[in-house]
Every structure is written in structure tokens, then in C-alpha cells.
Specification:
Protein name: YaiO family outer membrane beta-barrel protein
Strand order of the largest sheet: 1-2-3-4-5-6-7-8-9-10-11-12-13-14
Radius of gyration: 29 Å
Largest sheet: 14 strands, antiparallel, barrel
Organism: Pedobacter planticolens
CATH class of the largest domain: Mainly Beta
Shape: elongated
Distance between the termini: 84 Å
Keywords: Signal
């Protein structure tokens, strides 16, 4: 009788606790459905709080409640939820990620860094915390530290798309200065008797407003020497937007455009997408306006970019397209590239001078291969080879071969 009573109590207790646990899971499922499928945060909060009444130490639900408060712009309530989990389970990774993101999104980057560093002491191998730390350091303009962190993430997981996208933005900022030198040799089988030679030297400086690059280009085309002076700037607007502003002038019209200008607005979008829209202006004897748009995407170890150039002329619009793919085999400066295109690009110093004639309305197809490799972090070697099949006169085509080599030094 005694053992029978104890057994009955044990079964009853098991059933009660089991129902509570199951009930909390069911409520958690309903809360996520309300948040993600119905976009009803108040309902999701109510369901989560009901679940926590029966299971107050259910950390997943409390962290989710903190995220709901974050999305509902109730930071004080969110902090209470995250900190309660941290106080009871100091190694609970998701609570630090949630609290760190809360502070980061509310422009408290110093506080976010403290949260992330504490989290990494308790969960030192956490990839989400390391990635968040890189974002915070980038926002604090501590670019060299951010580069070290994100490079470590990519070393352990080279297919992590979000890290790859972030690393590209950080790398340009990781050293305040950079210099580069490049040379291109261009051979024509029919269109021109003599090859072209191009040399470019530039210096870039990172400022608190964004990077600024000064460049001197030399070219020997049509047996004539010419120089071009350019300035490019990439002003930082916000965490989402930045711009490209460019201008150039030449002393030898025909070898280079007499002057050129460009502007683009870039937007960093969710899911590692980036979009751009802008214009280019080239002046030879007349102005040539060209409008451009592009979309980019990181996917695992790959980067894809699709771009179009539209040139209005004589009640028609000339169109050109380019698809560029990179395969990263290491850091941000370690990749192979493949580009396929039609038409001419105003951003391509090798060929944009041909926009001075009617050839840009004729058929043109091109392909290029590139290789870029970092050496001891701050040195970068660049190689490329390209082939163009261009209709330079109606029904008359010629072939063009491009060979390029370059060196970049960050410091």
C-alpha cells in the first residue's frame, strides 16, 4: 500500500511536470509563429510571458522575449530579460548576442563591445559573438582590430557569407594608407597597328569621412603620350549607405577623356546584398552621359556582381552588361576572378577612350581572368588577362588581348 501510494505520487508528479514542459514548448512555438508569420509582437510577448510563468528558467524563451522587446523598441525590458539569463547561465551564448545587438542597434557601441567581450570570455569559440565584435569594432572605427577578428572568423569558416561581406568593408579601412602601381599592355590584331601601354600610380588615405584616393594615369595610345589626374572619394553616410564621387582631367584629349566625373550611391542590404545606382560623364569633344546600376551578392566563398551601363543617344539607348564573379580562397585580398561582358565600360581606363567614337554602339564581347593574392597581410599582388572581340567597323571585327600586373601596399 505504501509503495503503491508513492508510485502514484511519482506518476502524478511526472505527468504534471511533463505537461508544464510541453505546454511551455507549445507556447514557445505559438509565440514564434505570432512573431514571424503574423508579425504580431504584442501577442508573441504575451505568449512568451505565459510560458515563462510555468518554466521561469527556460532560457531560450527568455532570450526570445528579450529579442521581442528589442524589436518592439523597449530596450529596458529587453536588457532585463537578457541579463536575467546571463546572471543564471553565464555561458549562455545567445543572451550575449541578443544584448550585444541591442546595444549596437541603439548606438551604444562601447557598451556593446563590453557585452561581447564578456560573452567571449565565457564562450570563446562563439562565431556569432566574434562576428558581432567585428561589426562593433568597425562601427567604432577600430578597423585594424576588426580586420583581425573577422579574418579569424573566415579562417575557421571561409564559407560564412556575412563575414565575407563585412570583411570587404573592413579591409579598405584596416590601414589608413595605401599605395598601388599597375601596368597594362594591350595588343590589337587588326584595329590598331601599335599596342597600348598604360601605367597607373595611386595613393589612398582613410579619413573619418571615408577614403580618398588620388591617382595619376599615363598612357601611350595612337603613338601619343598622355596623362590623366583623378580623385576618387567614398564618403560614409550611414551604416547602410555610402557613396562614390570621382573626377578626372587630362592634358591630352583622345588619349584620355578631357575630363570625367562619376557618382554612385551604394546601399548595404540584408542577406549580404549590395545595390548601386549612379552616373558617369566623359567629355571628349562632347559630353557623353552614362547611367549605371549594379547588384552584388556574397554567397559562401563567392562574390557575384551584375552591372549595366545605359547610354542615351539619338533617341535610343545603348546598353552594356557585365557579370563578375570572385572565388575567395583566403582573406579578402585572396581570390580568383572571372568577368564576362558586352560593350564598353566608362570605368575601364583600358578601353573607355573608345567611347569617343561610334564603336560603343557596335557589338563587343569580352572575358577576363584575374588573380589577387595577399603577401604578409599588407602586400597584394594582382594579375589579369583579358580578351575582347570587338566590331570596330560595321561587320568588321578585331581581337584585343590585355595583360596586366599590379602591386598594392597598405600601411
Amino acid at each position: 500500500m505504501k509503495y503503491s501510494l508513492l508510485l502514484s505520487l511519482f506518476i502524478l508528479l511526472f505527468c504534471i511536470t511533463g505537461v508544464k514542459a510541453q505546454s511551455a514548448d507549445d507556447l514557445f512555438t505559438l509565440a514564434r509563429k505570432a512573431a514571424f508569420d503574423e508579425n504580431n509582437y504584442p501577442k508573441a510577448i504575451s505568449l512568451s510571458k505565459t510560458a515563462l510563468q510555468g518554466s521561469p528558467d527556460y532560457a531560450d524563451i527568455r532570450v526570445f522575449l528579450g529579442r521581442l522587446y528589442t524589436w518592439s523598441k523597449k530596450p529596458d525590458s529587453a536588457r532585463l530579460a537578457f541579463n536575467e539569463v546571463i546572471s543564471k547561465q553565464p555561458a549562455y551564448e545567445d543572451a550575449y548576442v541578443g544584448l550585444g545587438n541591442l546595444e549596437f542597434w541603439n548606438d551604444n557601441s562601447e557598451k556593446a563591445l563590453d557585452v561581447v567581450n564578456t560573452g567571449l570570455k565565457n564562450a570563446p569559440t562563439s562565431e556569432p559573438l566574434q562576428l558581432l565584435k567585428a561589426k562593433v569594432l568597425n562601427d567604432l572605427r577600430r578597423w585594424q582590430e576588426a580586420d583581425v577578428v573577422v579574418s579569424g572568423v573566415l579562417k575557421n569558416n571561409p564559407t560564412l557569407t556575412e563575414a565575407r561581406s563585412l570583411a570587404s568593408r573592413i579591409k579598405e579601412n584596416s590601414a589608413k594608407n595605401k599605395v598601388s602601381l599597375s601596368y597594362d599592355y594591350i595588343y590589337f590584331d587588326k584595329q590598331f597597328d601599335d599596342p597600348w601601354h598604360l601605367v597607373s600610380v595611386d595613393y589612398g588615405r582613410q579619413t573619418k569621412y571615408g577614403s580618398i584616393i588620388g591617382r595619376v594615369n599615363y598612357a601611350n595610345r595612337f603613338n601619343t603620350n598622355g596623362y590623366q589626374f583623378e580623385v576618387d572619394a567614398y564618403p560614409h553616410i550611414s551604416n547602410t549607405f555610402y557613396a562614390y564621387v570621382s573626377g578626372g582631367i587630362s592634358n591630352t584629349a583622345g588619349v584620355f577623356p578631357k575630363y570625367r566625373a562619376g557618382f554612385s550611391l551604394y546601399a548595404n542590404l540584408p542577406l549580404s546584398f549590395e545595390a548601386e545606382a549612379g552616373f558617369r560623364l566623359l567629355h571628349f569633344s562632347d559630353n557623353t552621359w552614362i547611367y549605371t546600376a549594379s547588384v552584388s551578392k556574397y554567397y559562401k566563398s563567392f562574390w557575384f556582381n551584375f552591372r549595366t551601363y545605359l547610354t542615351p543617344s539619338n533617341n535610343s539607348v545603348s546598353q552594356s552588361y557585365a557579370l563578375t564573379t570572385r572565388y575567395y580562397f583566403g582573406g579578402v585580398d585572396d581570390y580568383f576572378s572571372l568577368a564576362l561582358g558586352t560593350g564598353l565600360s566608362p570605368d575601364d581606363n583600358q578601353n573607355n577612350v573608345l567611347l569617343n567614337s561610334s564603336t560603343y554602339r557596335l557589338k563587343s564581347n569580352n572575358i577576363s581572368l584575374g588573380y589577387r593574392k595577399s603577401i604578409k597581410t599588407f602586400n597584394v599582388l594582382m594579375l589579369k588577362v583579358g580578351y575582347d572581340n570587338q566590331e570596330y567597323l560595321k561587320n568588321t571585327k578585331g581581337n584585343q588581348l590585355d595583360f596586366g600586373i599590379g602591386y598594392l601596399r597598405r600601411f
